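Format notes (please read before filing issues)

Several people have asked whether sequences and structure tokens are stored in separate files. They are not. Every record keeps both together, in the order shown below: the sequence lines, then the token lines. Line labels are part of the format and must not be stripped during preprocessing.
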Amino acid sequence: MQTLPQHSFQIVRTSYKSGDLTYEEPGYKLIVNLEGSAKRKFDWIACDLAFKKWTEPRGEFITDAHREKILQRLAEWSERQKVRIGFSPPLDLEKFARDAKASGWTVEKRDGGVTAFRSPVRRSIADQFRSLFGMQKRKSDQPTEPHSPELDESS
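Then the structure lines:
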């Protein structure tokens, strides 16, 4: 009778919204970064590319067959633990930047490969409605100078 090699999974929270999934089997370790999911369907999400190379021994490729075995084990483990983990391809930063620009964000590429995103100028809901309907601000909506009583020169 053939026995499966010993293996284990563990999730360790690294911040309020992220964690590390660690998979270990004799001689090998894989650490996958997890992010808290914004979708109700999953508790955690991870990039599917994380299952291409071992963390230890560093950089050694995981064969397709072994990757499938690990993912099957993970599915069984997560079901027993009642943890829902979703996997997706990596985010395309160029597409994300184009979408952000189209939504009014300022996108700036900086030295060192850093891309900075600044949100659009925020306007009050009243200003947004005025703009939408081509209305002007009323005088009563305009900021006024602080009132200061004039000096009484008769004293």
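For reference, the curators noted about this record: DSSP finds three helices and seven strands in the chain. Residues 64-81 form the longest helix (18 residues).
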